[in-house]
Amino acid sequence: MHVREGTAVEVALPIRSRLRQRAAAEPVPLDVLYEDDALIAVNKPAGMVVHPSFRNPSGTLLNGVLWRVRDRKDIRPGLVSRLDKDTSGVVVVALSPGVHARIQRDVHAARVTKEYLAIVRGTPQPLEGRISLPLRRDPADRRRVIADPAGVPSETTYSVIARGDGYSLVGCRLGTGRTHQIRVHLASTGSPVAGDLTYGSPDSIISRQALHAWRFTFPHPRSREIVKIEAPLPRDICCAWRDPLQLHLLPPDVSCNT
User: Fold this and answer.
1) Which are the catalytic amino acids?
2) How many domains does the chain have?
3) Residue 116 contacts residue 107 (beta carbons within 8 Å)
4) 153-207 pLDDT, tens per residue?
C-alpha cells in the first residue's frame, strides 16, 4: 500500500494490554495447588484461557485469581508462567510486581525448572537429548511458530519415559520458554504431540494436544526455600496413556486424576 502526501492515516492501538490491565475479579473456579501471601499456583485445565484478550475478555484464570484475592487491596498480579489454551498444568501467578521480578530473575539465572509431560506419536530418536532450534513466528501465519535460523535461541531437553503401541510418553524440561516451544521441538523430531492440530494431526486417543505442565520448581521469592509444585495428569491424558499404553508405566512420582 502506498500512502500519498497529505493522506490521513488512522491507527488502531492494540487493546490486549489494556484488557489485561483491566481484568475484573470473577468467580471462576480454580484448582489451587499452592498459595501464600506472595503467589498462587493453579492447576489449569485444558480449554481455560490464562489471561483476558480480545477474543476472551473474561472467564480466564487471571479473572479467577483476582476474585480469590479480592479482599486484598495491595494485589497487582503478574503471570510467571503461561500455557496455551489447550495445554493443562501448573500456572504460577505472582501477587506483586516485586515477587514477579524476583522470580523472573531466578528464571534468567536458571534457578527455575519447568517440566512437562507429553504423549507423542511414535518415538523420538535418540531416546533422550537436547533440541536446540531457533524459533520465530511464521510470517505466513502468525498463529504458528516455525524453526528458523533467524529465530530466537530455544532449547528443550527431553527423555522418553515409556513406549507403547505407536506412542511414547516423553518428559520435557525447558531451557527457554518460547511460544509453542515444546510442540514445535517435538514435531521436529518426527514425533509430534498427540492431538496437536497445529503441528501434528487429529488423534483418536485425545481431543486436544496431549501436553501437560507437570512440575514447577523454584526458590521462593522471599524465603528462598525450594518450592516444588506438581499437577497430577488430567483424566484425558491418563485415559489416553492407559489405552493403547500402560498406566503402570508412569514414573512413581507422577499421579493421575482418574
Assistant:
1) 84
2) 1
3) no
4) 999 999 999 888 899 999 999 999 999 999 999 999 999 999 999 999 999 999 9
pTM for the whole structure: 0.87
- Dist. CA 186–CA 160, nearest whole Å: 11
Instruction: Give tens-digit pLDDT for 50-80.
Output: 999 888 899 999 999 999 999 998 889 999 9
Q: Cell triple for residue 114?
A: 519447568
Query: What's the CA gap between 172 and 220, in Å, rounded?
Result: 23
Q: Tell me whether residue 257 is in a domain.
A: no
Nearest to 79 by CA among 173, 64, 174: 64
In this structure, are strands 113-121 and 211-219 parallel, antiparallel, or unpaired?
Answer: antiparallel
Q: Are strands 211-219 and 88-94 parallel, antiparallel or unpaired?
A: parallel
Cβ-count burial 213-222 (b if 16+ within 10 Å, e if not):
bbbbebbbbe
* 3-state SS, residue 130: strand
The answer to whether 67 and 28 have CB atoms below 8 angstroms apart is: yes
Q: How confident is the model at residue 13 (pLDDT cuts 50, 70, 90)?
A: very low
For residue 159, the domain's CATH number is: 3.30.2350.10
Q: Is residue 164 domain-resident? A: yes
How many CA atoms are closer than 13 Å to the CA of 211, on its beta-carbon side?
28
In a domain, 256, yes or no: no
Domain containing residue 74: 16-246
User: Where is 170: in which H helix or E strand?
Assistant: strand 167-174
Place of cell 511414547: 168
